[in-house]
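Cross-posting from the modeling subforum.

Setting up a comparison between two proteins and wanted a second pair of eyes on the formatting. Protein 1 (sequence, then C-alpha cells):
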Amino acid sequence: MEPLNVWDYEALAAEHLEPGAHGYYAGGAGDEQTLRDNVEAYRRWILRPRMLIDVEGCTTATTVLGQEISMPLLVAPVAFQRVAHRDGEVGMARAALGADTIVCYSTLATSTPAEVAATGAKRWFQLYVLRDEGVTHELIAQARECGFGALVLTIDAPVRGNRERDLRTAFTVPPDLPVASFRRGGITPREVFDMISPSLTWPDLERIAGEAKLPLLVKGVLTAEDARLACEHGAAGIVVSNHGGRQLDGVAATIDALPEVVEAVDGRLEVLVDGGIRRGGDVVKALALGARAVLAGRAPLWGLVVGGEAGARHVLELLREEIRLSLQLAGCTSPADVTLGHVSRRLVQTAGPTTLEG
C-alpha cells in the first residue's frame, strides 16, 4: 500500500537507510529531549473550530516575503541529501516545484546551487558563515547569481551540538559524494562544524544582507530578546528554530517558543517556524500562533529516501491536502483566516482543580 502520511514514510525510510545515515537525519543532541518535544508539543495545543462557515472554496495558497506559494509550508534546508537518495537536492527542488512551494538549499548540499537553480524551483539559500571568509563570500555570490530569492542565515550553530548518534556510528559522507561548498566528500559532521565561524554577531547581519542584496531571514531564534535584535539589525524575517533538536538539548519546543517571538516582533517582519511538523493540523496551529508559514525538513526528506523526487513530492502533496482539510474543518477558507482564536492550550487534569498545562 502507498504511504498515507508522514509517519508511514518515516517508518519506511528507517528501513531504507543504513544506520549511520539514519542516525544523522533522525537524531538530535544529548538525550534528544528537544527532538522529541518538538513533535509532542503540538499535542499541547488544540484547535478551536468554528462552524457554519462556507468552506467549499477553501484555498491553501499564501505568500511569504511577497512570493506566492501553494501552501504555508516550505522545504527546510537539509544537508547531504544525495546520501539519502541519488536524486538529492535536485530531486527535492523538483518536488518543491511540483508542489509549488519554496525549497531551502543547504550550505552542506551535495548538489551545486546552479544545479538546483536549473530546476526552476522557488528557492532560498541557507547560509552558514564559515571561518574562511573567502568561501562565505563565494557562497553569497552564488546565491545572488543563481537567482535565490532570500538568504536564510543559521545563527544557532556557532559550534556543533552533542550529537551522540553520529559519534556511535562514525557517520561520514561517502568520498564519492562531494559537499559542493567544500568540493570534497569523505567528510564528517564534526569536520563541517570545525569550518563554521563561532564569531558571528548581530552587526554581521546587516553586512551580509548588504553584500547579498537579498532579503535575509535569521534561523534559530527562540526568545523575545533575540527577536527584537533581529528586527533592529535588518532581518527580513525570522525562523523560530532549535535546529530540529540537534543543537542545545533542553530548549523550548519551537511551537511553544513561537508566541513569545511573534509578540516581540509585533508585525515588523514575518515569522516562520520549523521543527516537529508531521501533520497539516500542526501547520494550522502554527498559523494560529502567529507564524506566516512553517518549514518542514525531515518530513519531505523521508519521502526522498523512500521514493526520490516522487516520494518527496508525495509527502508535500499529502501535507498540502491535510492543511486544506484542517482549514476547512476549522472553519477557515484560507491561511489568512486563521487567528489566535482558533487555538488554545490543552487542559490538563491534575489531582486538584483543572489547570492549564505549561
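Protein 2 (same layout):
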Amino acid sequence: MSFPASAIDGSARAGSVAELIAAGSIEISPRELHRAAEVAALVPAGTCAYVPSLPGLPVSRVLETVAAIRHAGLDPVPHVAARRSAGREPLREFLQRAAGEHGVHRVLLVGGDQPRASGPYSDTLQVLEEGVLADTGIREIGIAGYPEGHPRIAPPALEEAFTRKRRLAAEQGLGVYVVTQFCFAPARVVEYCAALARSAPSVSIYVGVAGPTDPAALLRYAQRCGVSVSLRALRNLGTGIAQLVTHTDPHEQIVALARYSRSRAPSNVIGVHLYSFGGAVRTARWMRERIAG
C-alpha cells in the first residue's frame, strides 16, 4: 500500500509528524536510570517511558528504574518478559510493588529472547492465563506486533496467540494495545497497521521506530531483533552500512505514518515508540526537536 506525496501538504505533514511523536513513547534502559530527569526535561510531561528487560538484571534494579522514571514525571512501563521470569511469586511481588509503590498501570508483555525459560512461563499467554496482571493492579497491556513477521513463530500461530491474548485481556478487564517492532520498510509498517485496523479495529497501535543512532549499532540491533526482511532489502539495493541511517532516518518513517493516519478517520495509529538503543537522552532530544519543528 502506498500514499501519494500530495496527500498532505508540507505544513500539515509536519504537524502530523509532531503529533505522532508528542503522543509517543521512549525507552530508558536500567543502565540509564540516572538520566531519567534529563529525558523528562526534553519530552512532554507524562510521556510513557518503557523499561526493557535485560538478561540477568535483578528485579530490584528494574524497580529502581521505574521509581526514577516516575519521580522524573514520566509514566513508567516495564517489560514483563515471560521466559525471563524466575517464578510466579517473584513476578507477583514485582508487579505489586511496581503498581503499589510507583503507580505502574500498564506493562509490555514480551516472550523474552532466550531459548529456555528461567521459570514456569514459556510464553506471555501463560502469564495472562494466571490473571496475575489484573490481580496486582495492572489495567492495560501492550502486545508486541511484528510488521515483518516473527523470526521464530509462523504467522498463523502468531495470529492465533494475538486473538487469545485479546480474549483473555477482555475477560480480565484489561485494555490492549500493540507496540510494533521497528522496521526499515515504511510500506510494510503501513500494511501491517491497515491489516490490524481491519481485523481488530478497537486495538490501538504505537509504531516502533529505530531512534537516532550510529549505523554500526543500528545494524547490530536489527540483526539481534530479527529485522531481517527490510534489512536484506537494503542490502539488495547496495546500501552500505555508512548509508544505513540515511535510509532509515526516523523522520522519514514517521512521515509515511502521518500519510497513512491522514488517510483514515479515525486512525488506529496513536503515536510512535522510539527504540533508543541505550541512547535515551539523544533520542529524547531528537523527539523534542521534531515536536518543536
